[in-house]
Amino acid sequence: MTAQLPAYANRAFRRANTPTHVSIVGFPEVVPVVDGGGQLLDWGEGNDELAQVYFSTLERQQGDAAGRSQLQRAYRVYLVRPRDRPAPWLPIAVRVAQSSQANGGGRLAPRDASQGAIAQAIANWQKAGCPGLDSSEP
């Protein structure tokens, strides 16, 4: 997914009329969703598997007062799929945190990005048939 994500994200940013360009997406880390005791959590009726994928992006924003700025963002995507039948992984939530140039590069608190350009990029990538992905992996 992350190899294809910059192209899909940049299209989503253009459609949203946002002057942002994703130049790099870091290698993803896939982690199962577990409770405090290390047990895998289920979604809904217990028939679905959950996973979370962490990845980072390097984005350039153009047209601001500084002329051009770079942001590093860290994404956490929660995915679900039915356990009992083959189906694609579906994103159910997207969270993002970013470094802030305003506070000396410190991290800002994570926020919901489930309706943002990266979430839209993931959905569009899935609609295109998930090019470059083995369907067993999130």
Descriptive report:
With 138 residues, the chain is of the alpha+beta class. 16% of the residues lie in helices and 38% in strands. It is built from two helices and seven strands. Helix 1 (5-15) crosses helix 2. The longest helix has 11 residues, at 5-15. It is globular and about 50 Å long. The model has no long low-confidence stretch (mean pLDDT 79).
The profile of the biggest β sheet is:
7 strands, antiparallel
Q: Give the uncertain stretches in residue-range form.
A: none
Note the beta-strand portion. Answer: 35-45%
Class per helix and strand makeup: alpha+beta
* Helical residues, percent: 10-25%
The ordered string of helix (H) and strand (E) elements is HEEEEEEEH
Instruction: Quickly count the helices.
Output: 2
The count of DSSP E runs of length 2 or more, i.e. the number of strands, is: 7
Determine Rg (CA atoms, Å). Answer: 16 Å
Q: Average pLDDT value?
A: 79
Distance between the termini: 8 Å
**C-alpha geometry:** globular
Topology:
Blueprint: H1 5-15, E1 20-25, E2 29-32, E3 42-43, E4 48-62, E5 68-82, E6 90-98, E7 111-112, H2 117-127
Antiparallel strand pairs: 1-4, 2-4, 3-4, 4-5, 5-6, 6-7
